[in-house]
Specification:
With 127 residues, the chain is mainly β. It has one domain: Rieske [2Fe-2S] iron-sulphur domain (Rieske Iron-sulfur Protein), CATH 2.102.10.10. The chain contains one helix and 13 strands; from the N terminus they run ββββββββββαβββ.
């Protein structure tokens, strides 16, 4: 059964920045867009690596997070996959080699986590 967990005050999450947080042993990413926050599991659906730590560094702009390992890009608001495994460590790779890096895996969306802001406090529903 799911339950709500407080993540922190809204002011802790700067508009346009991505923050990694731990909630009950799970690493999540929180992105703020205006007064809204969007939360997803901090794992790229390609191989499960962190979206905030890796050789390509943290890359988040206009609500889009890029995997620092394989350059896959995701819309944090919807979870939609925008670009599946187009490079390595922040660098583009030739089209012919992308199929090798994909390891036969098909494009997948981020796993979103329901979040709300009430009275300036961000909570997520986990469970």
């Amino acid at each position: 059964m799911s339950h709500d967990v407080t993540v922190g005050p809204l002011e802790q999450f700067v508009d346009g920045e991505l923050v990694a947080v731990e909630v009950e042993g799970r690493s999540l990413i929180v992105g703020r867009v205006g007064s809204e926050v969007h939360v997803a599991v901090n794992k790229c659906p390609h191989l499960g690596f962190s979206l905030t730590k890796g050789p390509g560094g943290l890359n988040y702009e206009n609500g889009v997070v890029q995997c620092p390992w394989h350059n896959s890009r995701f819309d944090l608001c919807t979870g939609a996959n925008l670009d599946w495994v187009s490079g390595f460590a922040g660098k583009s790779i030739p089209k012919w080699s992308q199929s090798l890096v994909k390891l036969g895996r098909q494009p997948r969306d981020l796993t979103l986590v329901p979040a709300t802001v009430v009275d300036g406090i961000v909570t997520v529903s986990v469970g």
